[in-house]
Amino acid sequence: MAEDLALDLEELRHLHSIAKRPRTLSLLSSEICNLEKLSSEAPSARAAQIPAPISTGTRVSPSPALTYATLASFSWDQDNDKVKIYVSMEGINEDKIESEFKPTSFDVKFHDVQGKNYRSAISKLHNEIVPEKCKVVVKPKRAIITLVKASKGNWLDLQFKEDKLKPNLDKEKDPMAGIMNMMKNMYEDGDDEMKKTIAKAWTDARSGKAADPLSSYR
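^ Calcyclin-binding protein, sequence as received from the core. Prediction below:
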């Protein structure tokens, strides 16, 4: 594994030395840093402990037979510290709300609202929140779900959207596979000049080692 990482680093540095476009240089620099970090980590490093989910709000023990209608329609706004989600619905009983907030998700269930059960949930938020500070407030014609941001800043969306240009450097997989996917995505999304730069750099780097992996995209 250490030998493979060393070869990958050497190849990425070569690509970096011949690339010209700022975006390409930035992405290559980022991946070089990632591989250097992987190669320096001790195999005996202990896995980071994941904090246990913190549940807040009134807990209701629903019957296994309960069914929920998903609240797909809602509005939201934000400031630098919080995100507020507005659920328009009359007849909400504050004592029959089940809410669970985790660092990157939330799940709020509204029981017995005019004879029906509703659910508002996002499995992966745009950014992390502080579970113990989040809450649900009931108004006459709506409920307000307040999410407290773990770090200040603007969210582009409520849900997390993965950047396909960022390779997945899973320690259990070949790091070079993620880099190849990144280069292919850059090639597909780039303009003519970027495609020429990437194709030439990739061909020069692989010369004498393997066939050009981007040949099928030309």
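DSSP finds four helices and nine strands in the chain.
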